[in-house]
Specification:
By secondary structure, the protein is mainly α. It has ten helices and no strands. Helix 1 packs across helix 6.
């Protein structure tokens, strides 16, 4: 078993392999047989000793990836409404994603998968993440109108997760080693600065209208 040498349980090894394959090819493109073979199990039946079905495995992969994200959001909310606490929480999230770079691509695949069988699973696991994110933003971005918060949440999601979900695109356009230490450090600094600016109170117009001066015939 390749990953057992790292001190992981068989279940964790299966989840690691399944996460990578589901992220690369989606739910329909992966077979339980190939997951069992790569994990080092003797046969496909051995895999069912740990997960009752392919859908149960898929759900376990998603849950394992998303639960730490929710925990970081809760931690941020409980730390108070200070923007510095939110930025610190997001930096921890970036560290987590750097260790699990397949997760953002997996979430992106989930959004594109139109399988009716997965609709309940996706709703059950992803909606709490979005809800907790909105709750955290409501406590922090208090000057934003409530109907603007979902758009702010979506923008932050793309800012944080989009980099990891598009690693292959970054390599195609010439970004060297996007998951290397130097590139991740630059991305971390950029995201931290961008989030801090997005959470700033929106600037209000002065309320004074500048009326264009009419030119008189004598001025022409």
């Amino acid at each position: 078993m390749p990953r057992a040498r790292e001190g992981k349980s068989t279940r964790e090894c299966v989840l690691d392999v399944a996460e990578r394959h589901f992220a690369e090819r989606g739910f329909a493109g992966v077979s339980m047989r190939e997951i069992a073979a790569e994990t080092g199990l003797r046969n496909q039946a051995s895999l069912y000793n740990h997960f009752a079905s392919k859908q149960a495995l898929y759900e376990a992969v998603l849950r394992r990836g998303l639960e730490p994200i929710v925990a970081l959001m809760v931690e941020s909310r409980e730390a108070g409404a200070a923007r510095a606490a939110v930025v610190a929480s997001i930096e921890k999230m970036l560290d987590y994603l750097a260790e699990h770079p397949e997760l953002p691509l997996l979430i992106q695949r989930v959004a594109l998968d139109d399988s009716r069988r997965l609709h309940g699973t996706v709703t059950k696991l992803l909606r709490p993440v979005f809800t907790e994110g909105l709750t955290a933003l409501a406590a922090t971005a208090t000057t934003r109108p409530p109907d603007e918060l979902p758009y702010l949440a979506l923008g932050l999601y793309h800012l944080i997760f989009g980099y990891f979900a598009n690693v292959q695109l970054l390599e195609i356009v010439g970004q060297p080693e996007p998951l290397g230490r130097a590139a991740l450090a630059r991305q971390r600094a950029f995201v931290s600065n961008a989030v801090a600016q997005l959470l700033e109170p929106p600037r209000r117009a002065s309320g004074k209208l500048r009326v264009a001066r009419r030119t008189k015939p004598s001025d022409r």
